Amino acid sequence: MDLLNMSILELKDLLEDKKISAYELNKFFIDRIKNFDNQVESFLYVNEKALEEAKVVDEKREKGEPLPEFAGVPIAIKDNMVTKGMPTTCASKILENFSSPYEATVVNLLKEKGFILLGKLNMDEFAMGSSCENSAFKKTKNPWDLERVPGGSSGGSAAAVAVRMVPASLGSDTGGSIRQPASLCGVCGFKPTYGRVSRYGLVAFASSLDQIGPLTHNIEDAALLLSIIGEHDPKDSTSADYPKKDYLSLLGNDVKGLKIGIPKEFFIEGLQSEVKESVENAVKEFEKMGCEIVEISLPHTEYGIAVYYIIATAEASSNLARYDGVRYGFRAEAEGLREMYEKTRSQGFGEEVKRRIMLGTYVLSAGYYDAYYLKAQKVRTLIKSDFLDAFEKVDVILTPTSPTTAFKLGEKSDDPLQMYLSDIFTISLNLFGGCGVSIPCGFDKQGLPIGLQLLGNYFEEDKILNLAYNYQKVTDFHKKIPEL
Amino acid sequence: MSEIISKQDVQHIAKLARLHFEESEIEKFTTELNKILDYIHKLNELDTENVEPTSHVLDITNVFREDIVGESLSREEALKNAPDKEHGHFKVPRVIEG
């Protein structure tokens, strides 16, 4: 029984057919966490009660009592989604001992289906970063080379799935934070259309950009999880009133005649040659399937990072104002209230978070709002139009996910701007708001994973999922597991 | 590279953001912020005179619900993580003017 590459559905079948107990299944993954996570450091919190919860599932199954569909299947969650009974820290000192009184909608939806939460995963503090080096607690390592970063900010979510310490995880994506670590760690990472998944219980970073999505080792699991968590939520007024979809049932359609757009702006200097090669090989695979390859242009691509670092930081400066030591989290000693605010925030937040709050505060401040924030919002419109124009001509857009494979720990952490520039391929999707997935498409000479992105128009998750599914039928990059 | 914001500007922003920096940190932040802002200025290459701003990608407006009392956190739950509390209230240091 090769549990490592089984899909969630296959694991569910094993459980239902009593070929494995929930206890054995969860123990299998918990043992993998025990054996490998001291090297990878992807978990911030491991649920000690998981095995008890698994036993309860087994007892019920023995007695023939009704069980939810995925009872006993383990999963783990990025530590910026609130969970009851487990801490939620956002990898920040300012929330080090925070225990949420409520649960995120996505967590509720997974629990209703019977999933067992194995724990909370490491990330860049408040989701601000592209390497997991900004976590206040630990630096997750890339399991393919422990001296390299797993990517970020959902680095823990990607690394844990790559090593199969969990069969799947949830992450969040504001500027590429699911897709980029998925690419660097050799797993699938899906960002839904903005509004497809509820943000209730996702600690807010940039409210007009954030989305929760699955990281999995195969695309069917991404489709399945999306079907579960993708629904309108009255508790999130930015969640779209769009019907729930069974994305799994939409997999397997023929892709002959599907038009794939290749934006010329993404194939530039700075693109690692092996990345270019792998993506070009993937394009050939799609051509073999009968897809039509069309060269397109997304002319405002080069402005994406500038727009993002105005809008995201502005929204973040507002969203992080709540961390003031009053109602929850860390509080510094102080004589007076004002001093308490300043000390709490200065001691509680890491450098990158402070940097972004400062930037955001500046661009929103009196006298600068028009020059920066309003300007950025207008360029956002131009970027959005680029995509809408492109989707008039093509069904799906294909790009590399990251210009390079995983970089070394410490390599970019001294130069914030360098770190920001590594998001160039993922960022514009969040500004547009469409859906996108990164899937493994090769390895470089050093054995580091390479990912390609498939981007789709609003609510066209099924198109990109299906294309990815067809690709995974003829390739096996996604089945490779790093040796630790 | 011309300086876009000065150390004084940075100190002012820090105040607005309720952050406190040591002198050495102010230097570093000023340099870093200037570098980033310089990069951001590339947006001025674009003519956006007749472009509408996008604040949200979806066309959702005025999401209301009926004015009916629903579930809410209990006082206990709300105070659960309080660093300091008294008589069912959050407790904070006093406001010192100056």
Q: How would you describe this structure to a colleague?
A:
- The complex is a heterodimer of chains A (484) and B (98).
- By secondary structure, chain A is α/β, with parallel strands linked by helices.
- Chain A has helices spanning 8-16, 22-40, 50-62, 105-112, 155-162, 179-185, 219-229, 273-288, 304-319, 337-348, 351-364, 370-393, 416-421, 427-432, 461-474; strands at residues 43-46, 74-78, 116-121, 168-173, 188-191, 211-216, 259-263, 292-296, 396-400, 435-443, 449-456.
- Chain A has an eleven-stranded mixed beta sheet, with helices on both faces.
- In chain A, helix 8 links the parallel strand 7 (259-263) and strand 8 (292-296).
- A two-stranded antiparallel sheet of chain B has the order 1-2.
- The radius of gyration of chain B is 23 Å and the shape is flat.
Helix content of chain B: 25-40%
Q: What's the shape of chain B? A: flat
Quick check: average pLDDT of chain B?
A: 92
User: What is the total tally of β strands of chain A?
Assistant: 11
Strand order of the largest sheet of chain B: 1-2
Order of helices and strands of chain B: HHHEE
Could you say which overall geometry of chain A the principal axes of the C-alpha atoms support?
A: globular
**Major β-sheet profile of chain A:** 11 strands, mixed
Radius of gyration of chain B: 23 Å
Indicate the proportion of strand residues of chain B. under 5%
Strand order of the largest sheet of chain A: 1-3-2-4-6-5-10-11-9-7-8
Structural class of chain B: mainly alpha
In what range is the share of β-strand residues of chain A? 5-15%
Distance between the amino and carboxyl termini of chain A: 20 Å
Task: Supply Rg of chain A.
Answer: 21 Å
